[in-house]
Specification:
It is a single chain. By secondary structure, the chain is mainly alpha-helical. It has one domain: Up-down Bundle (Growth Hormone, Chain: A). About 80% of the residues lie in helices and about 0% in strands. It has 18 helices and two strands. It has a two-stranded parallel ribbon. Helix 2 (about 15-50) packs across helix 12 (about 250-280) and helix 13 (about 285-315) packs across helix 15 (about 340-365). The longest helix has about 35 residues, at about 15-50. The chain is globular and about 70 Å long.
Protein backbone atom coordinates (compact mmCIF):
# COMPACT_ATOMS: atom_id res chain seq x y z
CA UNK A 1 0.00 0.00 0.00
CA UNK A 2 1.39 3.37 -1.05
CA UNK A 3 0.43 6.67 0.53
CA UNK A 4 0.04 9.57 -1.91
CA UNK A 5 0.44 13.13 -0.68
CA UNK A 6 -2.20 14.95 -2.75
CA UNK A 7 -0.61 18.39 -2.26
CA UNK A 8 2.79 17.22 -3.46
CA UNK A 9 1.27 15.29 -6.38
CA UNK A 10 -0.47 18.48 -7.57
CA UNK A 11 2.45 20.81 -6.81
CA UNK A 12 4.90 18.65 -8.77
CA UNK A 13 2.65 18.16 -11.80
CA UNK A 14 3.47 19.81 -15.13
CA UNK A 15 1.12 22.19 -16.87
CA UNK A 16 -1.08 20.20 -19.29
CA UNK A 17 -4.46 20.19 -21.00
CA UNK A 18 -6.43 19.49 -17.82
CA UNK A 19 -4.94 22.55 -16.14
CA UNK A 20 -5.75 24.63 -19.22
CA UNK A 21 -9.39 23.44 -19.17
CA UNK A 22 -9.70 24.58 -15.54
CA UNK A 23 -8.12 27.94 -16.41
CA UNK A 24 -10.41 28.49 -19.42
CA UNK A 25 -13.63 27.64 -17.53
CA UNK A 26 -12.66 29.86 -14.61
CA UNK A 27 -11.58 32.60 -17.04
CA UNK A 28 -15.00 32.50 -18.76
CA UNK A 29 -16.81 32.80 -15.41
CA UNK A 30 -14.66 35.72 -14.30
CA UNK A 31 -15.13 37.39 -17.70
CA UNK A 32 -18.88 37.40 -17.17
CA UNK A 33 -18.27 38.89 -13.71
CA UNK A 34 -16.13 41.60 -15.27
CA UNK A 35 -18.69 42.37 -17.92
CA UNK A 36 -21.41 42.72 -15.29
CA UNK A 37 -19.42 45.13 -13.19
CA UNK A 38 -17.90 47.30 -15.95
CA UNK A 39 -20.99 47.59 -18.11
CA UNK A 40 -22.42 50.02 -15.56
CA UNK A 41 -19.58 52.48 -16.13
CA UNK A 42 -20.20 52.26 -19.86
CA UNK A 43 -23.93 52.95 -19.54
CA UNK A 44 -24.00 55.45 -16.65
CA UNK A 45 -24.00 58.56 -18.90
CA UNK A 46 -27.22 57.23 -20.52
CA UNK A 47 -28.73 56.12 -17.21
CA UNK A 48 -28.34 59.65 -15.84
CA UNK A 49 -30.75 60.81 -18.55
CA UNK A 50 -33.02 57.74 -18.67
CA UNK A 51 -33.78 57.78 -14.92
CA UNK A 52 -33.43 61.57 -14.51
CA UNK A 53 -30.93 61.21 -11.66
CA UNK A 54 -27.80 63.06 -10.55
CA UNK A 55 -24.21 61.78 -10.15
CA UNK A 56 -24.60 61.12 -6.40
CA UNK A 57 -27.57 58.75 -6.88
CA UNK A 58 -25.84 57.17 -9.88
CA UNK A 59 -22.87 56.45 -7.63
CA UNK A 60 -25.17 54.73 -5.14
CA UNK A 61 -26.79 52.64 -7.90
CA UNK A 62 -23.32 51.71 -9.10
CA UNK A 63 -22.51 50.47 -5.61
CA UNK A 64 -25.61 48.24 -5.33
CA UNK A 65 -23.94 45.36 -7.16
CA UNK A 66 -20.81 45.90 -5.12
CA UNK A 67 -22.74 45.83 -1.85
CA UNK A 68 -24.33 42.58 -2.98
CA UNK A 69 -20.87 41.27 -3.87
CA UNK A 70 -19.71 42.03 -0.33
CA UNK A 71 -22.53 39.91 1.05
CA UNK A 72 -21.83 37.15 -1.46
CA UNK A 73 -18.09 37.04 -0.73
CA UNK A 74 -18.58 36.86 3.03
CA UNK A 75 -21.44 34.35 2.84
CA UNK A 76 -20.32 31.97 0.11
CA UNK A 77 -16.62 32.17 0.92
CA UNK A 78 -17.35 30.42 4.24
CA UNK A 79 -20.21 28.25 2.96
CA UNK A 80 -18.09 26.78 0.16
CA UNK A 81 -15.78 25.20 2.73
CA UNK A 82 -18.82 23.16 3.81
CA UNK A 83 -20.80 22.44 0.63
CA UNK A 84 -17.99 22.41 -1.94
CA UNK A 85 -16.40 25.00 -4.20
CA UNK A 86 -17.72 23.65 -7.51
CA UNK A 87 -21.37 23.71 -6.41
CA UNK A 88 -20.91 27.21 -5.02
CA UNK A 89 -19.28 28.51 -8.20
CA UNK A 90 -22.01 27.14 -10.51
CA UNK A 91 -24.87 28.40 -8.31
CA UNK A 92 -23.40 31.86 -7.82
CA UNK A 93 -22.50 32.30 -11.49
CA UNK A 94 -26.05 31.35 -12.48
CA UNK A 95 -27.53 33.88 -10.04
CA UNK A 96 -25.60 36.83 -11.40
CA UNK A 97 -26.27 35.90 -15.05
CA UNK A 98 -30.04 35.66 -14.48
CA UNK A 99 -30.30 38.93 -12.61
CA UNK A 100 -27.97 40.67 -15.02
CA UNK A 101 -30.46 39.90 -17.78
CA UNK A 102 -33.42 40.99 -15.61
CA UNK A 103 -31.75 44.38 -15.05
CA UNK A 104 -32.43 45.21 -18.69
CA UNK A 105 -36.19 44.99 -18.07
CA UNK A 106 -36.27 47.46 -15.17
CA UNK A 107 -37.95 50.85 -15.52
CA UNK A 108 -37.10 52.57 -12.23
CA UNK A 109 -33.94 53.28 -10.24
CA UNK A 110 -35.25 51.17 -7.32
CA UNK A 111 -35.81 48.00 -9.38
CA UNK A 112 -32.58 48.58 -11.26
CA UNK A 113 -30.69 48.78 -7.98
CA UNK A 114 -32.40 45.66 -6.58
CA UNK A 115 -31.50 43.52 -9.59
CA UNK A 116 -27.95 44.80 -9.48
CA UNK A 117 -27.71 43.99 -5.77
CA UNK A 118 -28.84 40.36 -6.23
CA UNK A 119 -26.56 39.94 -9.25
CA UNK A 120 -23.75 41.23 -7.05
CA UNK A 121 -24.38 38.50 -4.47
CA UNK A 122 -23.64 35.94 -7.18
CA UNK A 123 -20.53 37.80 -8.31
CA UNK A 124 -19.16 38.03 -4.79
CA UNK A 125 -19.77 34.35 -4.12
CA UNK A 126 -18.12 33.05 -7.27
CA UNK A 127 -14.93 35.12 -7.32
CA UNK A 128 -13.12 33.87 -4.19
CA UNK A 129 -14.07 30.26 -4.88
CA UNK A 130 -12.84 30.37 -8.48
CA UNK A 131 -9.48 31.70 -7.24
CA UNK A 132 -9.22 29.09 -4.50
CA UNK A 133 -10.21 26.13 -6.68
CA UNK A 134 -7.76 27.09 -9.40
CA UNK A 135 -4.98 27.56 -6.84
CA UNK A 136 -5.58 24.08 -5.47
CA UNK A 137 -5.09 22.39 -8.86
CA UNK A 138 -2.29 24.44 -10.45
CA UNK A 139 1.35 23.24 -10.31
CA UNK A 140 3.33 25.26 -7.79
CA UNK A 141 5.65 26.65 -10.48
CA UNK A 142 2.69 27.97 -12.52
CA UNK A 143 0.31 28.94 -9.71
CA UNK A 144 0.85 32.70 -9.74
CA UNK A 145 0.54 32.78 -13.53
CA UNK A 146 -2.60 30.61 -13.51
CA UNK A 147 -4.43 32.71 -10.94
CA UNK A 148 -3.37 35.98 -12.59
CA UNK A 149 -4.50 34.65 -15.99
CA UNK A 150 -7.90 33.66 -14.60
CA UNK A 151 -8.42 36.95 -12.81
CA UNK A 152 -7.45 38.86 -15.94
CA UNK A 153 -10.89 37.71 -17.09
CA UNK A 154 -12.30 40.50 -14.93
CA UNK A 155 -10.62 43.15 -17.04
CA UNK A 156 -11.19 41.18 -20.24
CA UNK A 157 -14.88 41.33 -19.37
CA UNK A 158 -14.42 45.07 -19.03
CA UNK A 159 -12.90 45.18 -22.50
CA UNK A 160 -15.90 43.28 -23.86
CA UNK A 161 -18.28 45.60 -22.00
CA UNK A 162 -16.68 48.75 -23.40
CA UNK A 163 -16.45 47.30 -26.92
CA UNK A 164 -20.02 46.02 -26.99
CA UNK A 165 -21.36 49.27 -25.57
CA UNK A 166 -19.54 51.30 -28.23
CA UNK A 167 -21.49 49.26 -30.79
CA UNK A 168 -24.83 48.61 -29.01
CA UNK A 169 -25.60 51.86 -27.21
CA UNK A 170 -26.03 54.13 -30.26
CA UNK A 171 -28.40 51.64 -31.94
CA UNK A 172 -30.26 49.81 -29.15
CA UNK A 173 -29.81 51.84 -25.97
CA UNK A 174 -28.61 50.81 -22.51
CA UNK A 175 -30.99 47.85 -22.00
CA UNK A 176 -29.38 45.72 -24.70
CA UNK A 177 -26.04 45.87 -22.88
CA UNK A 178 -27.61 44.22 -19.82
CA UNK A 179 -29.42 41.55 -21.84
CA UNK A 180 -26.03 40.44 -23.18
CA UNK A 181 -24.99 39.82 -19.57
CA UNK A 182 -27.26 36.75 -19.39
CA UNK A 183 -25.47 34.95 -22.24
CA UNK A 184 -22.81 33.32 -19.98
CA UNK A 185 -25.53 31.02 -18.62
CA UNK A 186 -24.52 28.84 -21.58
CA UNK A 187 -21.20 28.20 -19.83
CA UNK A 188 -22.79 26.50 -16.81
CA UNK A 189 -23.30 23.02 -18.38
CA UNK A 190 -19.62 23.03 -19.38
CA UNK A 191 -18.60 23.97 -15.82
CA UNK A 192 -20.78 21.23 -14.34
CA UNK A 193 -19.22 18.60 -16.60
CA UNK A 194 -15.55 19.59 -16.61
CA UNK A 195 -14.79 21.61 -13.47
CA UNK A 196 -13.34 19.44 -10.66
CA UNK A 197 -14.31 19.66 -7.01
CA UNK A 198 -11.75 20.72 -4.41
CA UNK A 199 -9.30 17.91 -3.58
CA UNK A 200 -9.76 18.72 0.10
CA UNK A 201 -13.50 18.11 -0.11
CA UNK A 202 -13.11 14.95 -2.20
CA UNK A 203 -10.77 13.55 0.45
CA UNK A 204 -12.97 14.62 3.37
CA UNK A 205 -16.12 13.09 1.79
CA UNK A 206 -14.26 9.89 0.83
CA UNK A 207 -14.94 10.48 -2.88
CA UNK A 208 -11.64 8.83 -3.68
CA UNK A 209 -12.67 7.55 -7.11
CA UNK A 210 -13.20 11.12 -8.32
CA UNK A 211 -9.99 12.23 -6.65
CA UNK A 212 -8.02 9.45 -8.33
CA UNK A 213 -9.46 10.44 -11.73
CA UNK A 214 -8.45 14.08 -11.33
CA UNK A 215 -4.98 13.21 -10.03
CA UNK A 216 -4.33 11.03 -13.06
CA UNK A 217 -5.45 13.85 -15.36
CA UNK A 218 -2.92 16.10 -13.68
CA UNK A 219 -0.10 13.60 -14.33
CA UNK A 220 -1.35 11.40 -17.21
CA UNK A 221 1.98 9.64 -17.80
CA UNK A 222 1.99 8.20 -14.28
CA UNK A 223 -0.15 5.57 -12.54
CA UNK A 224 -1.68 5.08 -9.12
CA UNK A 225 -1.73 1.68 -7.44
CA UNK A 226 -5.18 0.29 -6.77
CA UNK A 227 -4.51 0.15 -3.04
CA UNK A 228 -3.07 3.67 -2.79
CA UNK A 229 -4.20 5.82 0.12
CA UNK A 230 -4.41 9.59 -0.04
CA UNK A 231 -3.15 12.18 2.40
CA UNK A 232 -3.82 15.89 2.09
CA UNK A 233 -2.22 18.64 4.12
CA UNK A 234 -5.06 20.29 6.00
CA UNK A 235 -2.94 22.65 8.03
CA UNK A 236 -4.00 23.38 11.58
CA UNK A 237 -7.37 25.01 10.93
CA UNK A 238 -10.16 24.46 13.46
CA UNK A 239 -12.43 27.53 13.35
CA UNK A 240 -11.57 29.17 9.98
CA UNK A 241 -12.57 32.78 10.72
CA UNK A 242 -10.79 32.83 14.07
CA UNK A 243 -7.75 31.05 12.66
CA UNK A 244 -7.14 33.82 10.16
CA UNK A 245 -5.63 35.62 13.16
CA UNK A 246 -3.86 32.68 14.78
CA UNK A 247 -0.19 31.70 14.52
CA UNK A 248 0.91 35.34 14.21
CA UNK A 249 -1.12 35.91 11.04
CA UNK A 250 -3.32 38.66 12.50
CA UNK A 251 -1.24 41.70 11.51
CA UNK A 252 -0.77 40.47 7.96
CA UNK A 253 -4.45 39.52 7.68
CA UNK A 254 -5.53 43.08 8.49
CA UNK A 255 -2.97 44.52 6.05
CA UNK A 256 -4.26 42.27 3.25
CA UNK A 257 -7.85 43.29 4.00
CA UNK A 258 -6.85 46.97 3.72
CA UNK A 259 -4.86 46.26 0.55
CA UNK A 260 -7.98 44.86 -1.10
CA UNK A 261 -10.07 47.78 0.17
CA UNK A 262 -7.77 50.24 -1.60
CA UNK A 263 -7.42 48.18 -4.76
CA UNK A 264 -11.16 47.63 -5.20
CA UNK A 265 -11.78 51.31 -4.48
CA UNK A 266 -9.57 52.19 -7.46
CA UNK A 267 -10.94 49.48 -9.80
CA UNK A 268 -14.59 50.37 -9.38
CA UNK A 269 -14.11 54.10 -8.93
CA UNK A 270 -12.36 54.23 -12.31
CA UNK A 271 -14.67 51.63 -13.86
CA UNK A 272 -17.79 53.65 -13.07
CA UNK A 273 -16.59 57.23 -13.53
CA UNK A 274 -13.71 57.24 -16.03
CA UNK A 275 -15.97 57.81 -19.09
CA UNK A 276 -17.77 60.64 -17.31
CA UNK A 277 -14.52 62.22 -16.07
CA UNK A 278 -13.17 62.20 -19.61
CA UNK A 279 -16.39 63.75 -20.88
CA UNK A 280 -15.86 66.51 -18.29
CA UNK A 281 -12.39 67.00 -19.80
CA UNK A 282 -14.15 67.81 -23.09
CA UNK A 283 -14.16 64.40 -24.83
CA UNK A 284 -17.35 62.85 -26.32
CA UNK A 285 -18.98 59.68 -24.94
CA UNK A 286 -17.32 57.53 -27.60
CA UNK A 287 -13.89 58.74 -26.45
CA UNK A 288 -14.88 58.17 -22.83
CA UNK A 289 -15.68 54.55 -23.67
CA UNK A 290 -12.37 54.34 -25.54
CA UNK A 291 -10.45 55.26 -22.38
CA UNK A 292 -12.39 52.59 -20.45
CA UNK A 293 -11.50 50.09 -23.17
CA UNK A 294 -7.81 51.03 -22.99
CA UNK A 295 -7.88 50.86 -19.18
CA UNK A 296 -9.04 47.25 -19.33
CA UNK A 297 -6.75 46.27 -22.21
CA UNK A 298 -3.76 47.50 -20.22
CA UNK A 299 -4.98 45.53 -17.22
CA UNK A 300 -5.43 42.35 -19.28
CA UNK A 301 -1.96 42.24 -20.79
CA UNK A 302 -0.19 43.39 -17.62
CA UNK A 303 -1.90 40.70 -15.54
CA UNK A 304 -0.20 37.98 -17.60
CA UNK A 305 3.19 39.69 -17.49
CA UNK A 306 2.90 40.26 -13.73
CA UNK A 307 2.04 36.59 -13.19
CA UNK A 308 5.27 35.50 -14.89
CA UNK A 309 7.29 38.11 -12.98
CA UNK A 310 5.77 37.00 -9.67
CA UNK A 311 6.74 33.37 -10.36
CA UNK A 312 10.33 34.47 -10.93
CA UNK A 313 10.97 37.46 -8.66
CA UNK A 314 8.39 37.05 -5.91
CA UNK A 315 4.78 38.14 -5.54
CA UNK A 316 5.30 40.86 -2.93
CA UNK A 317 7.85 42.88 -4.93
CA UNK A 318 5.69 42.59 -8.05
CA UNK A 319 2.60 43.82 -6.22
CA UNK A 320 4.42 46.82 -4.71
CA UNK A 321 5.72 47.97 -8.12
CA UNK A 322 2.28 47.54 -9.69
CA UNK A 323 0.55 49.78 -7.15
CA UNK A 324 3.24 52.46 -7.42
CA UNK A 325 2.60 52.53 -11.19
CA UNK A 326 -1.11 52.89 -10.41
CA UNK A 327 -0.54 55.90 -8.17
CA UNK A 328 1.65 57.86 -10.58
CA UNK A 329 -0.40 57.14 -13.71
CA UNK A 330 -3.76 58.17 -12.21
CA UNK A 331 -2.24 61.26 -10.58
CA UNK A 332 -0.81 62.36 -13.92
CA UNK A 333 -4.17 61.88 -15.66
CA UNK A 334 -5.48 64.94 -13.84
CA UNK A 335 -2.84 67.12 -15.53
CA UNK A 336 -2.56 65.55 -19.00
CA UNK A 337 -4.77 66.97 -21.71
CA UNK A 338 -3.78 65.25 -24.94
CA UNK A 339 -5.64 62.21 -26.26
CA UNK A 340 -2.47 60.13 -26.75
CA UNK A 341 -1.02 60.97 -23.33
CA UNK A 342 -4.30 60.13 -21.60
CA UNK A 343 -4.57 56.88 -23.54
CA UNK A 344 -1.12 55.81 -22.34
CA UNK A 345 -1.85 56.83 -18.74
CA UNK A 346 -5.20 55.03 -18.75
CA UNK A 347 -3.49 51.85 -19.96
CA UNK A 348 -0.84 52.16 -17.23
CA UNK A 349 -3.49 52.80 -14.56
CA UNK A 350 -5.37 49.67 -15.54
CA UNK A 351 -2.15 47.69 -15.86
CA UNK A 352 -0.80 48.64 -12.44
CA UNK A 353 -3.88 48.20 -10.29
CA UNK A 354 -5.36 45.10 -11.87
CA UNK A 355 -2.03 43.31 -12.30
CA UNK A 356 -1.17 44.02 -8.68
CA UNK A 357 -4.55 42.79 -7.51
CA UNK A 358 -4.48 39.64 -9.63
CA UNK A 359 -1.03 38.64 -8.36
CA UNK A 360 -2.29 39.33 -4.83
CA UNK A 361 -5.06 36.74 -5.30
CA UNK A 362 -2.58 33.90 -5.58
CA UNK A 363 -0.33 35.40 -2.89
CA UNK A 364 -3.14 35.68 -0.33
CA UNK A 365 -4.67 32.29 -1.18
CA UNK A 366 -1.46 30.41 -0.30
CA UNK A 367 -0.82 32.49 2.83
CA UNK A 368 -3.32 30.32 4.73
CA UNK A 369 -3.80 26.56 5.32
CA UNK A 370 -6.10 24.72 2.90
CA UNK A 371 -9.23 24.42 5.12
CA UNK A 372 -9.52 28.18 5.53
CA UNK A 373 -8.53 29.40 2.08
CA UNK A 374 -12.08 29.97 0.86
CA UNK A 375 -12.81 31.79 4.11
CA UNK A 376 -9.63 33.87 3.78
CA UNK A 377 -10.36 34.77 0.16
CA UNK A 378 -14.00 35.43 0.99
CA UNK A 379 -12.99 37.95 3.62
CA UNK A 380 -10.37 39.78 1.57
CA UNK A 381 -12.88 40.05 -1.27
CA UNK A 382 -15.62 40.99 1.19
CA UNK A 383 -13.59 43.75 2.84
CA UNK A 384 -12.36 44.79 -0.59
CA UNK A 385 -15.96 45.21 -1.70
CA UNK A 386 -16.41 47.94 0.86
CA UNK A 387 -13.72 49.82 -1.02
CA UNK A 388 -15.58 49.03 -4.24
CA UNK A 389 -18.72 50.54 -2.72
CA UNK A 390 -16.97 53.72 -1.63
CA UNK A 391 -15.20 54.25 -4.97
CA UNK A 392 -18.30 54.96 -7.09
CA UNK A 393 -20.10 56.79 -4.25
CA UNK A 394 -17.23 59.17 -3.46
CA UNK A 395 -16.65 59.75 -7.17
CA UNK A 396 -20.33 60.61 -7.60
CA UNK A 397 -20.30 62.97 -4.62
CA UNK A 398 -17.21 64.80 -5.89
CA UNK A 399 -18.75 65.15 -9.34
CA UNK A 400 -22.04 66.33 -7.81
CA UNK A 401 -20.16 68.97 -5.79
CA UNK A 402 -18.43 70.07 -9.02
CA UNK A 403 -15.01 69.68 -7.45
CA UNK A 404 -11.95 70.27 -9.68
CA UNK A 405 -11.06 67.24 -11.80
CA UNK A 406 -7.70 67.13 -10.00
CA UNK A 407 -9.54 66.24 -6.78
CA UNK A 408 -11.41 63.43 -8.53
CA UNK A 409 -8.26 61.88 -9.95
CA UNK A 410 -6.21 62.26 -6.76
CA UNK A 411 -9.00 60.62 -4.77
CA UNK A 412 -8.44 57.58 -7.01
CA UNK A 413 -4.63 57.79 -7.08
CA UNK A 414 -3.65 58.04 -3.41
CA UNK A 415 -5.13 54.62 -2.45
CA UNK A 416 -2.59 53.06 -4.85
CA UNK A 417 0.28 54.50 -2.81
CA UNK A 418 -1.33 53.28 0.43
CA UNK A 419 -1.82 49.79 -1.06
CA UNK A 420 1.89 49.57 -1.96
CA UNK A 421 2.79 50.41 1.64
CA UNK A 422 0.39 47.84 3.12
CA UNK A 423 1.60 44.89 1.02
CA UNK A 424 5.26 45.73 1.78
CA UNK A 425 4.52 45.28 5.50
CA UNK A 426 2.95 41.79 5.22
CA UNK A 427 5.00 39.25 7.21
CA UNK A 428 5.84 36.38 4.85
CA UNK A 429 7.60 34.41 7.56
CA UNK A 430 4.25 33.52 9.15
CA UNK A 431 2.55 32.39 5.92
CA UNK A 432 1.48 28.76 5.50
CA UNK A 433 3.33 28.43 2.19
CA UNK A 434 6.59 29.65 3.73
CA UNK A 435 6.27 27.40 6.79
CA UNK A 436 5.43 24.42 4.56
CA UNK A 437 8.56 25.00 2.48
CA UNK A 438 10.64 25.24 5.64
CA UNK A 439 9.17 22.00 6.98
CA UNK A 440 9.78 20.21 3.67
CA UNK A 441 13.37 21.45 3.60
CA UNK A 442 13.98 20.20 7.13
CA UNK A 443 12.45 16.84 6.28
CA UNK A 444 14.69 16.56 3.22
CA UNK A 445 17.74 17.30 5.37
CA UNK A 446 16.72 14.58 7.82
CA UNK A 447 16.20 12.09 4.99
CA UNK A 448 19.63 12.82 3.50
CA UNK A 449 21.25 12.51 6.93
Amino acid sequence: MKEINVNKWIDDSKLNGFHIVIVLICLAIIMSDGYDLFVYGSTVPLLLKAFHIGPALAGILGSCALFGATIGALLFGTLADKIGRKVTIVCCASIFCVFMGLTGFTSSPAMFGLCRLIAGVGIGGSLPNVVTLASEYMPVRNRAWGVAAIMSGMVLGGVVAAGICMWLLPMFGWRAAYFVGAVPLLIMPVAIKWLPESPLRLTAKNRLGELRTFLLKLRPLESLAADSTFEINKGSGRAPIVDLFRERRGFSTVLMWLLYFMSFYIVYGLGVWLPKLMMNKGFPLSSGLWFLLVLNLGAFFASHIAGFLADRFGSKATIVVCFLITFFSIALMSYAGGFVALTILAALAGAGNNAGQNVAHGYVSTFYPAPMRSTAMGFVFGIGRFGAIFGPVIGGVLLGLKMPLTANFMALAVPGLIAALFISLVQDKYSFSYLSRQAASMQADVTRA
